[in-house]
Amino acid sequence: MKPDALSPWYRDLVVALRMKGASGREIGDAVAAVQSHCADSGDTPEEAFGTAQQYADALPLAEPAESTVRLLVRAWPTWLALLGSFLALACYDAWQAKTAVSVSVGTVIFLVVIVALAVGVVRFMGPVWRHRVLTWAVLSIAFALGLLAQVTLRQSAFSLPLAVAAPLAAVLLFGPALYEQRHLATAYDPVEGPFETRAGSERAGRRAAQFLAWLLPVGTVVVIAIAATLDHLSRH
Questions:
Q1: Per-domain residue ranges for the chain?
Q2: Rounded to two decimals, what is the model's pTM?
Q3: Which residue in 70, 16, 186 sits closest to 3, CA to CA?
């Protein structure tokens, strides 16, 4: 089952059920039940069940929804990798300048902004999904302000010797990716219908999880490589 190919009502239902902690199988069964009822009755989902959120709230689930705090705690590999990425970039700057690694006040503020945005998206997933254009506008403005703080507030918040910061950055950046590839790739829970096989969707889910796990480390290396190339070209 591919919910993205369905109408907005079904996509809203998938999001609402995910936020309640429903499994992929439960979501697939719920969508299939609505489709079957509407095919037999000729009603639209709205006519038969009300809004997607109302229908999701009426469905009993096997497991309770996870709290926002728990969802964010489970994302600890991402937070560590993000910190490692910022520290790795600071290490490159320090190596170029032959100084200690200094993390600026603006960088700290930028990290806080990113965490705050993530908390907001997770906490208000329903409204975020329903008002996607407004959400992208708000996120873009907030991200731009955080980036502006990083660029303008250059005062040092703390510093570390390069010999300490570089290995720490490598562990923070690549450690979570290795962990996720080993332990989290198989946790993908695809949305599926009651008569569908899991094999194909699980393979796709594992590939997607592995890609996302390595996206930040590889992206950081690419950014540093580009910066090094530009620095080299500017000196010649």
A1: 3-58, 84-100+161-236, 102-159
A2: 0.64
A3: 16
